Write a sequence for this structure.
């Protein structure tokens, strides 16, 4: 089946990384894939636009079916390959509810992170305001504290409890992104422990962003 | 089961409406519910904050399980009540892929709509720019054209094909919102036909925002 799949991706992009983790978890190695470069504008290339008219990565196809939205791809892969690889949606209603809740809260988290990290990319020069930068950073700090609290109060090592689930697939890349941008491990010990413990999980290790392997990210979040 | 559920909601809010449509589709009428008023700041009240610390509506509980994120609630209800009411996730892989893809694209649609309609609410006075308003409106217009095209090229009356699915549950409220804010029906005939045909669907009729029944919305999107 993996041979029928094609993924165009960018290194470090949380949405791309989610799909790659899900593919690994479902034992779907060996798919066709191509690493593209956001900095060169590859995501607006004709090759990507033909698969994803939004000009975004990932661009992902399973056979003839297009699943460019990362959560759509993850949900679809889990549904189509239920008994293959690791089960990513818990059966227990309480864990399942928690999984869905955290998974979708993860999109808010990811957006607040993007509002800080990509502010100058997203907002044209004449429209930038220090007050907006300050507000965005405060919103991100509040969001990070929320997730630190979830892990502190949680009943297991994972976001939805005792087993790795789609909540982790969706949110882990954003948490890794925070630390890539130098979030202080001492200030957020639960997030740091979660981040470090999952680094060695085979699906995550195998899909670790290649551009992150031998470099440090900017110190953008150190004082958050 | 519905007696164990509690929904705090606001009239017209697409996320609240999604949950209400899903509850109707799954024959889960009779849940505890309370209509709150965003204009009075009810969504920041202690009652809401106790259920949803983000201070947002919907706030939704199934027994002890919290599902405040609207897509989380919809996915959970479909999974827990698979054989009750209408099936909302198609079995056919092609339709299922399309359903997930459209469902998650619906979040982008909803966000672009919010960027236009709630600009003055979201952006403090000193940070507002005509150039941003123009850009947001252009982005929304492009998004609406995309959805008009999806319906034009689609193989059925619904967003994921021949049957009503979670894609419709998630996206219909945003499309209704566009027309509430006076989007021109003649300019977007497929969207208008979709909007009007689903108005009479029992789940949608039963959950129609009460504040919309006898009033027109502002003409904000008429020239888009």
């Amino acid at each position: 089946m993996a041979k029928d799949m094609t993924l165009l991706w960018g290194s470090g992009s949380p949405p791309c990384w989610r799909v790659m983790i899900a593919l690994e978890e479902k034992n779907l190695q060996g798919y066709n894939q191509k690493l593209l470069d956001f900095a060169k504008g590859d995501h607006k290339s004709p090759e990507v636009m033909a698969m994803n008219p939004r000009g975004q990565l990932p661009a992902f196809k399973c056979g003839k079916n297009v699943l460019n939205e990362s959560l759509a791809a993850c949900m679809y892969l889990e549904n189509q390959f239920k008994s293959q690889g690791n089960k990513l949606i818990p059966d227990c209603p309480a864990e399942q509810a928690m999984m869905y809740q955290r998974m979708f809260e993860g999109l808010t988290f990811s957006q607040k992170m993007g509002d800080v990290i990509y502010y100058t990319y997203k907002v044209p020069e004449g429209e930038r305001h220090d007050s907006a930068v300050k507000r965005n950073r405060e919103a991100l700090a509040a969001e990070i504290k929320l997730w630190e609290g979830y892990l502190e109060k949680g009943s297991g090592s994972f976001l939805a409890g005792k087993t790795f689930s789609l909540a982790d697939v969706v949110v882990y890349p954003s948490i890794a992104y925070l630390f890539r941008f130098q979030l202080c491990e001492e200030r957020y010990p639960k997030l740091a422990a979660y981040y470090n413990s999952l680094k060695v999980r085979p699906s995550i290790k195998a899909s670790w962003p290649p551009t992150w392997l031998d470099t440090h990210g900017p110190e953008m979040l150190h004082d958050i």
